[in-house]
Amino acid sequence: MNEKEMTTTETVTKVHVIQFKAPYLFECMEYKEIDLSGLDDLSTDDLLTAENMYLKTGGTSINPETTLLYSLILAHIASDKPFEFFGKLPAKEAMKIKKEVYRFFYGRV
What we know:
The protein is of the alpha+beta class. The longest helix has 16 residues, at 91-106. The protein has a two-stranded antiparallel ribbon with strand order 1-2. Helices cover 46% and strands 16% of the residues. Helix 2 packs across helix 3.
């Protein structure tokens, strides 16, 4: 493999995959990343489910897609991880997820 091929291979990143700074332990399993590629497969029904969960858990923003809570609910739906998975994440990791969900809706900022 030549240098150009190595560079190209090394710079390839997976879309909607969040790398954690340190391994995250949840229910006796260690996670180094979370794959949110399911965002691309969300339906309107999924968004309505997320909105209902958001309202039931006390969300009140007129722009829920800009909130951490709504972003984590969508991450839960997109990743098939239980919602509780997101509760003990380090704050910086939760904010990475929020940014990725926001970017999914509004593009890179």
